[in-house]
Specification:
This protein is mainly alpha-helical and 489 residues long. It folds into 2 domains: 3-150, Up-down Bundle (Methane Monooxygenase Hydroxylase, Chain G, domain 1), CATH 1.20.58; 166-488, Neurolysin, domain 3, CATH 1.10.1370. Helices cover 63% and strands 3% of the residues. Strands 1-3-2 form a 3-stranded mixed beta sheet, sandwiched between helices.
Length: 489
């Protein structure tokens, strides 16, 4: 380690410890915190977050970072860390501790009220708090905004470096056009099966969840599974990558695939090489890179026909012996049922990207000032009807279904659709080296994880365009996803 970089380590270690505390509090608030304690815990959360942010305003740390930036002997990982910190410092130089604390307070309160309002399907109850986080997101975007960027571009760049709405429009518009033609074709040839029982008690679904996590290689000695209103995953530390799910007692498939999704996230966290931790770049992967891996395990692997024999065994042992009588084709249809529904998380691979595109189009106009916050439900309902043919009768099933906007995460949603595109590219590249279908048939995920660890996870600290070229040798190619869909459907 270079002397200039080594001088940073006391600060980086402090940031890492504070990050751990913040993640612990966030996980507790979402999973176990008593309702009456949420506000107190949120205040503590905000205080620690302000302390972590204050490091970026420490004159000594800023000087050390700027000194390290001049060091020609930094390695690739160290240089990425310094580059990232310089960008964060530039932002924090324009933010007061009071303003940061207010943003955190608004986000925490918004999340608290959203949970209550969603249960009632009452958008008006959440509206004033959503207005706060939207205004806060615009303020942050104005601080980050560079010449030639829209406000929404500035939001996007926080989650996906070097991305902008013009680029997304060039990808999403033709993808939307393709899907709007493809979906009716698939639905017209849709196979029907006699549906098995889908309703199972929580205890059985939990047993299934743990079997699935074990199947894909998630290490429970370095993780945990709990229940939350909206499933999520988080990298707390090198030995702590936790996930959550939500159990739908009427349809086990919801929790089954949310566990595979969040487990896919956590597998990336659990397989970062020690060099990333030594250089403090763990967690630098963009949101699209992270969503690539979650959706890779949830869909590309998790809904593959080759995996159906293993599912038959697991389902018959954890849920009901009657699953043993289902054929591979019936199981494949059960888990790849193309349907026009309101819920993003429960949607199939073919329609899923339309759920993302409608969110993208709404939040783009919202942040750019072309859509008022109070008009979100009407726009949401209109686009859901136009793209998916679904009538929204309750905001709980519409614009309140996702957690992302509660804390002002505008610019995150496109990551999911980009993850679909990247995942298809990775599958094509992976198949050049290993027989993916044969491994899935045996339920052997280790060679797949080994390949991802060596060729993918080890480079995910890089910016997306650099990362995907390193993994596949190509720039982003949306046609790989179209080829994948054409082959599957």
């Amino acid at each position: 380690m270079n002397e200039s970089f080594e001088a940073l380590t006391p600060y980086l270690e402090k940031k890492r410890r504070l990050h751990y505390l913040i993640c612990l509090l966030n996980y507790d608030i979402a999973t176990a915190c008593p309702e009456d304690s949420i506000e107190d815990l949120s205040d503590i959360f905000g205080s620690i977050d302000v302390e972590a942010a204050s490091i970026l305003q420490d004159p000594e740390y800023i000087a050390l970072i700027k000194n390290a930036a001049k060091d020609p002997n930094l390695n690739d990982l160290e240089r990425r860390l310094v580059e990232h910190e310089l960008e964060s410092i530039e932002f924090m130089e324009k933010v007061s501790p009071k303003q940061l604390a207010l943003w955190n307070k608004h986000a925490s309160k918004s999340g608290e009220i959203w949970r209550k309002a969603k249960a009632k399907g009452d958008f008006s109850m959440w509206l004033p708090h959503l207005k706060n986080v939207v205004e806060d997101a615009r303020e942050k975007a104005k601080i980050r905004q560079k010449e030639g960027q829209t406000l929404y571009d500035a939001c996007l760049s926080f989650y996906e470096p070097d991305c902008n709405e013009a680029f997304l429009d060039s990808i999403f518009d033709p993808l939307k056009e393709y899907l709007l033609k493809k979906i009716p074709e698939v639905l017209s040839k849709k196979k029907t099966i006699e549906m098995p029982n889908l309703a199972y008690p929580k205890v059985k679904q939990e047993a299934l969840s743990y079997r699935l996590l074990n199947l894909i290689g998630y290490n429970l000695k370095k993780g945990a599974l709990r229940e939350s209103e909206h499933p999520f995953s988080d990298n707390l530390s090198r030995n702590d990558a936790r996930i959550t799910t939500n159990y739908d007692l009427n349809d086990f498939r919801s929790s089954m695939f949310s566990v595979l999704h969040e487990g896919g996230h956590a597998l990336e966290f659990q397989h970062w090489p020690k060099e990333q931790y030594e250089s403090y770049v763990e967690g630098f992967a963009s949101m699209a890179i992270c969503e690539t891996h979650s959706r890779f395990f949830e869909n590309i692997l998790g809904r593959s026909k080759a995996l159906m024999p293993m599912y038959r065994k697991i389902l018959s042992e954890t849920l009901d012996p009657s699953f043993e009588s289902l054929s591979d084709e019936e199981l494949f249809t059960l888990f790849n049922d193309v349907k026009l529904i309101a819920n993003r998380c429960d949607s199939d691979e073919l329609t899923y990207s339309l759920h993302i595109i409608l969110r993208y189009e709404i939040e783009k106009d919202l942040i750019n000032g072309k859509l008022n916050v109070e008009d979100i439900p009407a726009r949401w309902n209109q686009l859901t009807k136009e793209y998916l043919g679904v009538e929204i009768t309750n905001d709980r099933d519409g614009c309140m279904q996702d957690v992302h906007w509660t804390d002002g995460s505008f610019g995150y949603f496109p990551s999911y659709a980009l993850g679909n595109l990247y995942g298809a590219m990775i599958l094509e590249r992976m198949k050049e080296d290993i027989d993916v279908d044969a491994l899935l048939f045996k339920g052997d995920f280790k060679p797949i994880l080994d390949w991802l660890s060596k060729h993918d996870f080890a480079y995910d600290y890089r910016k997306p365009n650099e990362w995907i070229r390193k993994v596949t040798g190509k720039s982003l190619d949306p046609n790989a996803f179209v080829r994948y869909l054409e082959q599957k459907y």
